[in-house]
Amino acid sequence: MAKNPLLTKEKIRTKYPNQWLLLEDFELDASTTLLKGRVIAHSKDRDEIHRALKKHAGNLCVHFTGTVAPDTGVIF
Amino acid sequence: MPRVVFDPSVSSIVVDLLVEAVDGQSSLVIPVVLDTGASLTILATDIMARLGYDPANPDLDRQRIVTGSGVEYAPRTAVRSATAIGQKVANLDVLCHDLPSESGVDGLLGLNFLRHFKLTIRFRKGIIDLSRER
Fold this sequence. Notes:
The structure holds 2 protein chains of 2 kinds. By secondary structure, chain A is α+β, with helices and mostly antiparallel strands. Chain A contains 2 helices and 4 strands, in the order βαββαβ. Chain A is globular, with a radius of gyration of 13 Å. Chain B has 2 helices and 10 strands; from the N terminus they run E-E-E-E-H-E-E-E-E-H-E-E. Chain B has a single domain, classed as Cathepsin D, subunit A, domain 1 (Beta Barrel). Strand 4 of chain A pairs parallel with strand 3 of chain B.
């Protein structure tokens, strides 16, 4: 099966809005920030991405393209 | 100097954290909240397990943590290294603890990482600089 294309973070965020993603073949810049990657799993459900992590070896990147709802405060 | 740009309008600052596996042969990059209110760095248990650490090991120390909703206990261990905002810390202690998925992150980048560096946050411009003190 053909691999998904290598996409920039901006294109990933446009193509997979408000989703959890698992990426391979990713690149980071000097500030450890994601630049591009190849999507191998995507879901609205973080648990699905955590399960997908177990099926893939090597260096991987988990990325979330959504944001916390504007009417929701965040306190940890 | 390593610099990260963020959207000043968002409710929390999220950065990418690269965590090295226990065998040093692979790594994961995950989203974490930069949290100067957290004394320790926290990583999700699934992430730790995928990296070859054993968060379920009953021999691990259990750290008492005070959160906004009460007191909890979480397994504490060390990762080989963690890198964020272009800076790396080896042998970093972390707590294995899950945050709600609605947070959009898989952990917190706490003071035990940040205190190794000079941290500058320019909130109005959305810029974070992290450099080694001279």
